[in-house]
Design goal:
Elements: E1 6-10, E2 14-20, E3 34-40, H1 42-53, E4 58-65, H2 69-78, E5 81-88, E6 94-100, E7 106-111, E8 131-137, H3 144-157, E9 163-167, H4 171-177, H5 179-185, E10 191-192, H6 196-203, H7 211-218, E11 224-228, E12 234-238, E13 241-246, H8 259-272, H9 277-291
Parallel strand pairs: 1-4, 1-8, 2-6, 4-5, 8-9, 9-10, 10-11
Antiparallel strand pairs: 2-3, 6-7, 11-12, 12-13
């Protein structure tokens, strides 16, 4: 009897500079902070959490700069991920500065660098050999070349019977691209994993609209919609209705950076091992709870 197939993540690897500042930022002067430089990236983080919480083989396709390629590759291998990192000759690895306040919420300053320069030439259909699930980081859809690669990967997965999931990644970037344009690009995916803001935006609903309605409407487009809600847990919608709500694990949060990525990794690993959506969401919540108790987005 064979086990589940591999998980292939196509996404971003970045260098995170995480600054945790207990006091509000003081304009035009110093603010004391605890600052760490850590490996990150939504796609890479999700891959690492999937490798940590599940038993399936996890692969990652991403693009990095030459200056930190070896460091990032070693971090991924140490986390149990099989990386295929394309080294960009022109741009450095993407960098994200995460400003984390007393409430553990974060504000990002993002330089995508090499990460969104993934292009069709970086794709090889053999990446799907032995895979049963493809996960696409939503950041791929915010630049022309990486969006083209994401669409090629999605189209390659469908004839093989490989399930496909997408994490929309950023409400701000979604608004810039246009929700309909994003939805058109991800047409045919099996699982959508937005947070509350992304779900409302993609459903075309006002900010104060209940997230359950947004999830239900999105599930008329995508078979399985799983909305992450931070400390409120997660909500699952299928075929136009909410089918389950899952509570978050109670913890004392230090840094919420990567919590959604941890949820995605835990959720996908559980699904590949046969869990139903609610069980997988509980696994995702457990991973997210662990993620927020430490700086950075990796296990």
């Amino acid at each position: 009897m064979t086990g589940p197939g591999a998980l292939l993540v196509v996404g971003d690897v970045v260098t995170d500079v995480v600054a945790i500042h207990p006091e509000p930022l003081a304009p035009a002067t110093d603010t004391a902070a605890r600052i760490r430089t850590l490996p990150g990236g939504a796609g890479a983080n999700a891959a690492c959490w999937a490798a940590r919480t599940g038993t399936v083989e996890v692969r990652l396709l991403a693009r990095v700069g030459a200056e930190s390629a070896r460091w990032h590759e070693r971090a991924l291998v140490d986390a149990g991920v099989r990386p295929r990192l394309v080294v960009d000759a022109q741009e450095p690895t993407g960098t994200v500065v995460a400003l984390v306040g007393k409430d553990a919420e974060r504000t990002f300053l993002t330089d995508s660098g090499a990460s969104l320069r993934l292009c069709p030439a970086d794709w090889n259909p053999s990446l799907l050999d032995g895979a049963s699930h493809l996960h696409l980081s939503g950041y791929l859809f915010f630049a022309d070349s990486s969006r083209e690669l994401a669409v090629i990967a999605l189209r390659a997965a469908r004839p093989r019977g490989v399930q496909v999931s997408v994490d929309p990644a950023s409400a701000g970037f979604l608004a810039g691209l246009g929700p309909q344009r994003f939805l058109d690009a991800v047409a045919g995916v099996d699982v959508l994993l937005p947070n509350e803001d992304e779900a409302r935006l993609l459903a075309g609903l006002p900010e104060l609209t209940g997230v359950a309605r947004a999830a239900a409407e999105l599930s008329l487009r995508v078979p399985l919609v799983v909305v992450t809600r931070g400390a409120a847990g997660a909500l699952i919608a299928e075929r136009g209705r909410v089918t389950a709500e899952v509570r978050a694990e109670p913890v004392e949060a230090v840094d919420s950076t990567g919590a959604g990525d941890a949820f995605t990794g835990g959720f996908l690993a559980a699904r590949l091992e046969g869990a139903d959506p609610a069980e997988a969401a509980r696994a995702g919540c457990r991973a997210a709870a662990l993620a927020v108790t430490r700086p950075g987005g990796r296990p």
